[in-house]
Design brief:
CATH architecture: 3-Layer(aba) Sandwich
Radius of gyration: 14 Å
Low-confidence stretches: none
Strand order of the largest sheet: 1-2-3-4
Number of strands: 4
Number of helices: 4
Number of domains: 1
Distance between the termini: 27 Å
Mean pLDDT: 76
Largest sheet: 4 strands, mixed
Shape: globular
Order of helices and strands: HHEEEHEH
Helix content: 40-55%
Structural class: alpha+beta
Amino acid sequence: MRTRCVSANRRTLLAAGAAEMRAAPSPPELLLWQALTNRKLGVSFRRQVPLTGYICDFVCASRRLVVEVDGAHHGPPEALMRGAMSACVGSATVCSDGLDRAVVALVVETLAA
């Protein structure tokens, strides 16, 4: 059974926002997507996924992994929301203020765990 954490109206707004974000990704998001797309790490990722009232940058549903990049523009309330979202879906979260090889390595390490 799926739990509804947000109203239908909010879900519609989140879906529209996610579509806009997929159409215009930030440079770090675009680079990470190139590393994650087409099952390059052996699992499927989706990008800009509305989840529990928040738009996650990348989600690997099969491994319950959420990846957030360029998080510097998120203030403390957003960080709290990410923590609550992680607890709600029981996922691991990888957060970064930018993109470098260490981020991809951390994603690979988390997937291997």
